[in-house]
Amino acid sequence: MGLALSKEGGRGVSHLGWTLGWSQGCSRPNLLPHSPLSTLKELREMIQLPGARPLLDPVDFLGLQDRIKEAPRPRKRLTELLLRTATEKPGVEEAARQALASRAWGLRFFRSPQQVLPSPDGQRAAGIRLAVTRLEGDGEATRAVPTGDTEDLPCGLVLSSVGYKSRPIDPSVPFDSKLGVIPHMEGRVVDVPGLYCSGWVKRGPTGVIATTMTDSFLTGQMLLQDLKAGRLPSGPRPGYVAIQALLSSRGVWPVSFSDWEKLDAEEVSRGQGAGKPREKLVDPQEMLQLLGR
Ligand SMILES: Cc1cc2nc3c(=O)[nH]c(=O)nc-3n(C[C@H](O)[C@H](O)[C@H](O)COP(=O)(O)OP(=O)(O)OC[C@H]3O[C@@H](n4cnc5c(N)ncnc54)[C@H](O)[C@@H]3O)c2cc1C
């Protein structure tokens, strides 16, 4: 996902164009209008951003109403807000506000960045070339594939996002390196009974914390189902004591919750001096020093 800043031709309107997409070969359907892009609150704030108006192409939202019927509630509400913004005429007051707005921002879906286009002198960015994509497949197998068409978006600044990809944790845990996820059935890790996954390692880097939370509840439900059905190993387990002994045998000194509380108190106290809720400690060495290591 990236951000391209441009001015709309002749109208002096700054255009913040979010170009959602993936390079060719990587085709997670993260660039869809019904993928959670932000929290509902953030999207609402963007739509009502003072001095700015949203630009959304209604074509991107065709047939979306049906697709989101079964979606979890947070995702559904977010998508409905996008859909309304893209397809419904704003009320009189909002229309007047938008007419006066000197800036605009837009979300571009079904696009995959291909190339940054240089200015004639080759010194600056002049635009970004986007491959137009379409969806193929159903459900989890849905993929965005290039249609062969491209589109140039003029802009003066291109920011690329940091990206995110999970890595395998251990050879005993199956891992799909291409997608960066653990293969699973509703959170149950494939071929490893009693092991579960949730979050970005389960579904790839899509969604916000609320999405991850909902997803974890679903995995939790599977675990409880298995527990009730007697599919999990039972009997006393050594738990933390065994982990502590293992770490100690390897010379690892874990940071405990009370250690974290000490760091938290230190950050809060440093922040108070500067009139902030906290001053973040960012140096791990300093953190360890404060914990007496
Ligand atoms: C730049 C950025 C900004 C974001 N901003 C927002 C936002 O403003 N609001 C919002 O709601 N969401 C935001 N998100 C999304 C949010 O961060 C994710 O939805 C959420 O963190 C996913 O949770 P997770 O538990 O799956 O993964 P993570 O939060 O990445 O947690 C995985 C954990 O596993 C640990 N780990 C990895 N390997 C090992 C190992 N081998 N052994 C032990 N531990 C290991 C990692 O250190 C990490 O702590 C943002 C994401 C990014 C990348």
From TrEMBL:
Protein keywords: FAD, Flavoprotein, NADP, Oxidoreductase
Keyword Transcription regulation tagged: no
InterPro entries, A to Z: FAD/NAD-bd_sf (IPR036188), Ferredox_Rdtase (IPR055275)
Cofactor annotation: FAD
Highest taxon, organism lineage: Eukaryota
PROSITE patterns: PROKAR_LIPOPROTEIN
Record-linked Gene3D superfamilies: NAD(P)-binding Rossmann-like Domain (3.40.50.720)
PANTHER family documented for this protein: GLUTAMATE SYNTHASE 1 [NADH], CHLOROPLASTIC-LIKE (PTHR48467:SF1)
Name by which UniProt lists this protein: NADPH:adrenodoxin oxidoreductase, mitochondrial-like
Organism listed in the record: Galeopterus variegatus (Malayan flying lemur)
Gene designation: LOC103603699
